[in-house]
Specification:
single chain; 103 residues; mainly alpha; two-stranded antiparallel sheet; 2 strands
């Protein structure tokens, strides 16, 4: 919920009690401390999938970066030194991309 609110109103000041699952709970469990208008429950629902996709892509990007550093970069530097083939490095990059796809 907080991620969705921060997506809709970046830097908003809000307190969320529990995990509201409908408009009534949202009205009582979200305490808005921001001067900007509070998004409606319909706004939350309309952006739920967008934010979930954004978070999944950020996680995939971080996982790729970690795996590139650990697995692919050594092959790349080995390729530069003539210890590995370019194809070994490219295959590892493709494997990492397949392991952590974007949504």
């Amino acid at each position: 919920m907080l991620e969705i609110l921060k997506h809709l109103v970046p830097g908003c000041e809000v307190v969320i009690i529990g995990d509201p699952i409908n408009a009534d709970e949202y009205a009582t469990q979200v305490i808005w401390h921001d001067d900007r208008p509070q998004p409606s429950w319909d706004d939350i629902e309309a952006n739920r999938q967008i934010v979930a996709t954004k978070i999944a892509n950020e996680q995939a990007m971080q996982a790729r970066a970690d795996d590139y550093r650990i697995e692919a970069d050594p092959l790349f530097f080995g390729y530069q030194r003539g210890e590995n083939t370019e194809q070994e490095w490219l295959d590892k990059v493709a494997e990492i991309r397949a392991r952590h796809p974007y949504a």
